[in-house]
């Protein structure tokens, strides 16, 4: 049977919910306590579905369980694919009391979550993230949405799940590139507010890449706890929550330039965090040694170190200025005051930003 | 200049907002107090835009005002048209601090409102309804959304506006058929909870059809007050708010069968309310005289009295059972205990429902 390793709570008043981290949960744990009605719609993709769908169906004894299988990939995080979920819900006549279950990575979670936020103006949902990145980041905090050709996650909603179920066994089937991408977000939590966790990661990175279960469980727990704490303070990103976007403004520009799906989100964030550290040095906020420490850990996590081929600083400027992190036209960035201390600023100088962009262009390597 | 006739408040705590009813408001009143940022995106359609767009632009002195013009009609209340709004917002680089303005009828209001709910996970919006139906119903209460081929308003959000601005002058350009459709919702408020208002309407119906300004102002004010009171009690339709759906379950089936845009929403609701009154008699809840009173007023408002050509009771049953008013498969309806006293029930007998459907089929006329 299953083993619950760790459990924590995202504290949002009447919208609070548990995160359950364990081994062997899928197929074994009973999820019906988080299902109010009789209907369940599992949303998954054609990679994850064949691996875990039958197991997850067994988590809902006595319920009517329907399934919709989406094509796998960030390039399908769009209206057309989202509509497949609505089609399935309406064809199977799901009511306002249905529960949607997101089984897969961040793309499935974001789309199933937005479908849950929007179907009949909102139904409950459960997150069952199966990638490291979604387990430590996107499944927690209620951000849902789809991409638009002109920008990532431009259309969406804040919609909190009823529960998040993390089975570390699912990481055994994850490609190494996706493990690295997930580690980018894990490293992020250390960088933004937990230097001791970053130091722990510096000792644990090889074990994590080797998928050591206990080490992964600990890294996931500490990451979720960090995210839960930030989200509880600022559910709708009016302020402090924005620090979770360290590396994301640069990263989103990279993802958009490369075309969705060509760079993994975590890969772009990894490069973006190196860029944020670089700019933090130029702004006189951290030392070159601090930057070297950041760069070294991201490199050890096997993440890319420069922007995609043919990308220019103009591309960056154009793509960053439509990103949602900008308010009233100013470039709003998350920078580091120290390792473990990030903050949001609109004060970075244009010259320094431009120099950082140039330093990370592929021709500069 | 303009004249404010009446003002009321929708009381929803921190999401409270004013409804301002007046003459000559467009082009004259300053709406910038409800605009937090520097950007405004007016969403309108190709019928209303040419009439009022330039006037509404003048309501935002000192702001950057962009415009998106949608094709007019319920048949365009879909994903594809919604995306025109997102395209415009992104092409013009609107940030999370933009304010969306809905200028038009219920379709524009529902779509602009859903765009506001979803753009960058939520931005503020202002309702400027220009049809009687949207002034008394859809612009108040925060329901937003689009249709799906399998059901009306199946995808949407609850998103409250910053303010609702009702200029009765806009009704001068409204086709008579749309005036009647709006009166269906006005009559509804009398039927569900305000018998004195219904009695007043019985004396005022010809003046309303003749667009007498003072009479319209009073009818709009009392309708909005009724809706605001119900919405304040139950923002997300967990209970009492459902009484606002009197006639809507039958009506939605009619609209879906006829094809969106062929019947006006208010027309379908008018017939649907006659059906609800008919079923209420069969269920022993009201007298035949009560039903005759309901029918007479709806007829005097020049609304249709039977389902569309070729529609069968089976069509009704199939289309009603995907409607969102049904929970866990039971047919949930709003019926009348008395004129001015509606309630939600799942207890109506199948035989009586079937008899009511048959009584309103076109061949039965």
UniProtKB/TrEMBL annotation, chains A, B:
Coiled coil: none
One Gene Ontology MF term: 3-dehydroquinate synthase activity
Keyword terms: Amino-acid biosynthesis, Aromatic amino acid biosynthesis, Cobalt, Cytoplasm, Lyase, Metal-binding, NAD, Nucleotide-binding, Zinc
Binding site for NAD(+): 72-77, 106-110, 130-131, 143, 152, 170-173
Pfam family, one: DHQS_C
Residues noted as binding Zn(2+) in the record, renumbered to the chain: 185, 248, 265
Note accompanying the cofactor annotation: Binds 1 divalent metal cation per subunit. Can use either Co(2+) or Zn(2+).
Domain 3-dehydroquinate synthase C-terminal: 182-326
Cofactor(s) the protein requires to work: Co(2+); Zn(2+); NAD(+)
Compartment annotation: Cytoplasm
Subcellular location, principal: cytoplasm
Matching SUPFAM superfamilies: Dehydroquinate synthase-like
Catalysed reaction equations from the record: 7-phospho-2-dehydro-3-deoxy-D-arabino-heptonate = 3-dehydroquinate + phosphate
Associated pathway: Metabolic intermediate biosynthesis; chorismate biosynthesis; chorismate from D-erythrose 4-phosphate and phosphoenolpyruvate: step 2/7
Entry EC number(s): 4.2.3.4
Domain 3-dehydroquinate synthase N-terminal: 68-180
InterPro entries: Dehydroquinate_synthase, DHQ_synth_AroB, DHQ_synth_fam, DHQS/DOIS_N, DHQS_C
Role description: Catalyzes the conversion of 3-deoxy-D-arabino-heptulosonate 7-phosphate (DAHP) to dehydroquinate (DHQ).
Family note: Belongs to the sugar phosphate cyclases superfamily. Dehydroquinate synthase family.
Name of the protein: 3-dehydroquinate synthase
Native organism: Marinobacter daepoensis
């Amino acid at each position: 049977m299953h083993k619950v390793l760790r459990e924590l709570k995202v504290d949002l008043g009447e919208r609070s919910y548990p995160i359950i981290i364990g081994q062997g949960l899928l197929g074994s744990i009973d999820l019906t306590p988080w299902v109010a009605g009789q209907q369940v719609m599992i949303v998954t993709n054609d990679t994850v579905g064949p691996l875990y769908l039958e197991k997850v169906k067994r988590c809902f004894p006595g319920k009517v369980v329907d399934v919709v299988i989406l094509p796998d990939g960030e390039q399908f995080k769009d209206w057309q694919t989202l509509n497949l979920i609505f089609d399935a819900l309406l064809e199977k006549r799901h009511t306002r009391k249905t529960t949607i279950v997101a089984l897969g990575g961040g793309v499935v979670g974001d789309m199933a979550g937005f479908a849950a936020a929007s179907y009949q103006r909102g139904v409950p949902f459960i997150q069952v993230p199966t990638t490291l990145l979604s387990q430590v980041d996107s499944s927690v905090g209620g951000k849902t949405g789809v991409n638009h050709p002109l920008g990532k996650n431009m259309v969406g909603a804040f919609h909190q799940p009823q529960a998040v179920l993390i089975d570390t066994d699912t990481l055994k089937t994850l490609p190494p590139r996706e493990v690295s991408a997930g580690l980018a977000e894990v490293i992020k939590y250390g960088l933004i507010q937990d230097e001791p966790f970053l130091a722990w990661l510096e000792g644990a990175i090889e074990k994590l890449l080797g998928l050591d279960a206990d080490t992964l469980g600990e890294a996931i727990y500490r990451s979720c706890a960090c995210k839960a704490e930030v989200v509880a303070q600022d559910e709708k990103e009016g302020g402090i929550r924005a620090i979770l976007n360290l590396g994301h403004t640069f990263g989103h520009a990279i993802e958009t330039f490369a075309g969705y799906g060509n760079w993994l989100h975590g890969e772009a964030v990894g490069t973006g965090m190196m860029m944020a550290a670089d700019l933090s040095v130029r702004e006189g906020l951290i030392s070159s040694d601090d930057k070297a420490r950041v760069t070294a850990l991201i490199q050890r996590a096997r993440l890319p170190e420069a922007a995609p081929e043919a990308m220019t600083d103009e591309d960056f400027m154009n793509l960053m200025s439509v990103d949602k992190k900008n308010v009233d036209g100013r470039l709003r960035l998350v920078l580091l005051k120290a390792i473990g201390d990030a903050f949001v600023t609109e004060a970075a100088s244009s010259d320094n930003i431009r120099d950082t962009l140039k330093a990370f262009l592929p021709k500069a390597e």
